[in-house]
Amino acid sequence: MKKNTNFKSNMITYAMVIAAFAIVQVLRTTGHLSSLMTGLLVPLCVYVILAVSLNLVVGISGELSLGHAGFMCVGAFVGALFTKCTKETITLVPLRFFLAVLLAAAVAAVFGILIGIPVLRLKGDYLAIVTLAFGEIIKNVINVFYIGRDSNGFHVSMKDQFSLGMEADGVILLGGPQGINGISKDSSFLFGIILVLITLFIVLNLIDSRDGRAIKAIRDNRIAAESIGISITKYKLMAFTVSAALAGVAGALYSHNLATLQASKFNFNTSILALVFVVLGGIGNIRGSVIAAVLLTALPELLRGLADYRMLIYAIVLIVMMLFNWAPKALEWRERYLGRFFRKSAKEGE
């Protein structure tokens, strides 16, 4: 019964995403979607992926990570550099973008492993501080690198672009604080929705799997889980690595929607924003993270015409979402009515 309920819940989540895509496509075709909202479609997908991936660590694994923007930054720059280097050799846009996303996910996963092995031995505030430091370090390291390419190959410097020593045909790939310029805008809303569905498929299936149950057992009672032979390090590192890889995917999607990419965009506020999505959507609630990311990203733009009242309404929505997800009376109401609805649906499906 539990498995059947989880399957139905997952199908509802997938259906919500597909239905949202269909509605947006209809609005775009009929001309009812403003240019402002059209420009927000890819960022919406980026933040959904970022929120879902962070919820895997914060909600399912039970660890507080504040360095998610660092993994997103790694994926963004790796993907953008790959696209810029292969723009002339790989002319098929979907293939080039797909390879860029795969490479971004792989490199972000490697960073997740390297950071996770020592960091996941820490708990609580210490883990949050170290992951926060990682996000800031990554951003500042990228800012000191200058990478160029000419007929002789690649040139790297940590001083300035003039010290690269390139030939006349040389091209600056990474310009330190100036970042990467002239990125090919390969991302689209369709690619974003596909990546959102893939992210949801990976996370939801991991949660419902044997490994996911082990991760949740560690979250609920570390000592009890260890006493029955569950490897704490293995499963915590698994969740952290998968989350880092998906953040890299979000970064690649984000970078391919811009003409210029700078490391300063991936600051502390980006990590906090992702954490806000997770908390307001419900810690451990994947569907809630999707809804919160979409609502809180689109709402400020939708309310822009209200001028002085825009941020007031935004704040009220934040408070209402917090009460709905955390207030005892609201939780009791949800269990009484929504819980009864899902249990009834599960029984009918048997």
Ordered list of secondary-structure elements with their pairings:
Elements lengths: L1 H29 L4 H27 L6 H19 L6 H27 L4 H20 L2 E5 L2 E5 L13 E5 L4 E2 L7 H20 L1 H11 L1 H6 L4 H24 L4 E2 L6 H14 L4 H17 L7 H17 L1 H22 L1
Antiparallel strand pairs: 1-2, 1-3, 4-5
Helix pairs in contact: 1-6, 2-6, 2-9, 2-10, 2-11, 3-4, 3-5, 3-9, 4-9, 6-7, 6-9, 7-9, 10-11, 11-12
As for the number of domains, it is 1
Structural class: mainly alpha
Measured between the Cα atoms of the first and last residue, the distance is 8 Å
What is the CA-atom radius of gyration, in angstroms? 22 Å
| Strand percentage | 5-15%
- Biggest beta sheet attributes: 3 strands, antiparallel
Q: Could you say which overall geometry the principal axes of the C-alpha atoms support?
A: globular
CATH architecture: Orthogonal Bundle
Q: What name is given to the CATH topology?
A: ABC transporter involved in vitamin B12 uptake, BtuC
Number of helices: 13
The low-confidence parts are 344-350
Instruction: Give the helix level as a range of percent.
Output: over 70%
Q: What is the chain-wise order of helices and strands? A: HHHHHEEEEHHHHEHHHH
Strand numbers in spatial order across the main sheet:
2-1-3
Number of strands: 5
Summed over residues and divided by their number, the pLDDT gives a mean of 84
